Amino acid sequence: MQDYNIDIIRRKYQMVPRTLVFIEKDEKILTLCKQKRDSFGFGKLNGIGGHIEQGEEPFESAKREIMEEANIQVKNLDLAAILFIDIGDCPGVEVFVFKAEYLSGETRDSKEGHLEWMTRAEILEQPNTVKDLIFLIDLTDRYIPKSTPRIVKYSYDKNEELRIDIYSEQE
């Protein structure tokens, strides 16, 4: 770090890195209803994921979160999108969104929350989903394996309405 001026770095826009994984099995998606009070999306239905720890890269983080939150093995873990979430004066959030297929193991609830395999229709019926859950699931469904991930920017207008811009779209 001796080549970097830490004061300059601290004054720059910063982002909190996170992972989010949508795991599929028999046309169902593994969902997690967050029960940990200090977690993002408390009480909401979402995919598997969390913060990227210092020293981790996104794939390592995704695998760790899958084991911690679901206790299962997956295959074909692909980076489908990268979200940049601008939330104003606060640090932004950078989310690496993955798609994976269930391989083995029995899911078990954890301190993070309750797990359930759900179809799209069942997810749509839930009153407690995070606002963009279906959009993100659709985004990962359109992902072509081993291709370039989509780049997506979330921002909020003056009325706090979510705006979504997709900067790279696959053919």
Your description of this structure?
With 171 residues, the chain is of the alpha+beta class. The chain has a single domain, classed as Nucleoside Triphosphate Pyrophosphohydrolase (Alpha-Beta Complex), CATH 3.90.79. It is 20% helix and 40% strand. The protein has helices at 6-11, 58-70, 120-125, 133-141; strands at 15-25, 28-34, 45-46, 48-51, 73-85, 92-104, 113-118, 150-156, 162-166. Strands 1, 2, 3, 4, 5, 6, 7, 8 and 9 form a nine-stranded mixed beta sheet that branches. The radius of gyration is 16 Å and the shape is globular.
Main sheet: strands, sense, barrel:
9 strands, mixed
What's the Cα radius of gyration?
Answer: 16 Å
Number of helices: 4
- Write the CATH architecture name: Alpha-Beta Complex
Give the helix proportion (percent range). 10-25%
| Overall average residue pLDDT | 88
Compute the number of strand runs.
Answer: 9
Strand residue content: 35-45%
In one word, what is the shape? Answer: globular
CATH class descriptor: Alpha Beta
- CATH names the topology as Nucleoside Triphosphate Pyrophosphohydrolase
Which helices and strands occur, and which strands form pairs?
Layout: H1 6-11, E1 15-25, E2 28-34, E3 45-46, E4 48-51, H2 58-70, E5 73-85, E6 92-104, E7 113-118, H3 120-125, H4 133-141, E8 150-156, E9 162-166
Parallel strand pairs: 1-6, 5-8
Antiparallel strand pairs: 1-2, 1-4, 2-3, 2-7, 5-6, 8-9
Features:
171 residues; alpha+beta; Nucleoside Triphosphate Pyrophosphohydrolase; nine-stranded mixed beta sheet; 4 helices; globular
